[in-house]
Amino acid sequence: MKVIGLTGGIGSGKSTVSDYLRNKGITVLDADQIAREIVLPGKEALKELLAYFGEEILLENGLLNRKKLGKIVFSDPDKKLKLDQIMHDKIRSQILKKLQDESSQGAPYIILDAPLLLETGMDRIVDQIWIVEMQDTLRISRVMKRDNLTEEEVKARISQQMSTEEKRKKAHSIIDNSSDLENLYAQVDQLLANL
Length: 195
Ligand code: ATP
Prior knowledge:
alpha/beta, binds adenosine-5'-triphosphate
């Protein structure tokens, strides 16, 4: 089974590409969703987060307050490092388990949508890397609107990710999302045809 890692900067259009692929019946593993599953109440990752960050990162209903945790770590590199240490290995092993399940069911290929594919070294478990790109001005304004963040908050998140130039060096294919959706989907169709 071929594993295609789909990545790109915050707000570049990964979810838009993933949704398109899913609608075509292709299996897409979503690393963000896996990250949410492993912090559900009772899970080991949540226990470790609570031990380090305290109860203040919980919502009243006992779920993790992701927005609050995001604000805490994005302004404190040590805390960000600790969060990564708690999360990354667990996300990775869960992804490997899901890939194995899909492989045993005979899927010819699978997409792994992972915003931090390159930053976390998960590119080593994929066969191809597709990178979605969108110019900064456009993605910053789209993410500000989508997530109700300030420009500074979005830029802080961008600065934590690998630069576009570094990402490019590792890409097998670059998907240019600077135009409309029709153009975006046509590029994805071409990549699928080449597989
Ligand atoms: P994140 O890294 O934050 O998860 P993402 O890379 O998954 O973001 P999307 O959520 O797919 O990015 O796209 C960001 C926003 O831009 C969304 O609101 C999406 O609907 C919109 N968008 C993406 N591509 C286009 C496009 N070609 N034309 C118009 N809007 C677009």
